[in-house]
Amino acid sequence: MSVYEGSRHHQPVAQTVVAIHELIRAILLPRDLADVCRTIFQQLHNVLQFDAGFIEHYQPKTDIMQTIYSIDGEIEKTEPYTWDYRRSKVVAWIIANRQLIRFDDLHEDLSKRFSIENTRSFGQTEKRSRAWMSVPLLIGDDFIGVLNIQSYQAALYGEFEEALLTTVASSVALALDNAQVLAELELEVSELDIPRIPLSDDVLIVPLIGVLDRLRWENLTQTILETLRERGCEHVLLDGSGLLTFDPDAIQAISTIVKAIELIGAKSMLIGLRPSLIEGLIRAGIHLKNIRTARDLPMGLAMLGIG
């Protein structure tokens, strides 16, 4: 029996609990917004049956809604689409009542619950969404958006599916909010000049800030190499105290930077990692191979023989 044979099919509870745990763990990992949304639906498929779905993200500053992700079978759309939520009585009702809404057959039941509804086209045009369920995404009293799943089969969802989607909604809201904050922070950081602090003629300190995505570490590598050529420094201290995360991607980025520095005859060292980041590395079983490290700047300078 599949995991998503729901309340009307006696869902296996233990298997569902494990799947929900994996879903929450996966979507809370820091990554960009599109990856978060994609992971949400990939993980939801382990516990619920649906053919299509979407995620709406509320923009409080402009009081509008933004469709940030939709999927229909194998077709996904990640280009944000902004629209006035007041055009949809269903979405407006969800926002006003902060409650899940479910239809056994959307096109038959919609007019019974709402006198006028301008539905936006979604999914395969040759099919019609029937079973349909949307849940508000909330962090405390703050409305974050809407998570929707739908099927081309009627009467697919019941109370169990309602409870399950409501259970994961808070984690989805938090994941979206985290991704949005990281995206805004990365935008701010990317617009800043990469700081380079010459400590002496031989030593260059480079603060690492935020999240080391591919674009940032490529720019960082280029900036470091240009500075080394200009100043002729022999040592580069990479200060990791400002890193938000230190995952395998960040380690790969730093390893690439270290190799590039070595290729032009200089040496490098990673300093200042916060204890929380180091504990995360240990728990994940990740080791900093071929990267020299020091607790802080004084220790790093001592290891270089600079008093």
TrEMBL record:
This is STAS domain-containing protein. Pfam families: GAF_2, STAS. PANTHER family: RSBT ANTAGONIST PROTEIN RSBS, RSBT ANTAGONIST PROTEIN RSBS-RELATED. Residues 193-304 form the STAS domain. Signal peptide: none annotated.
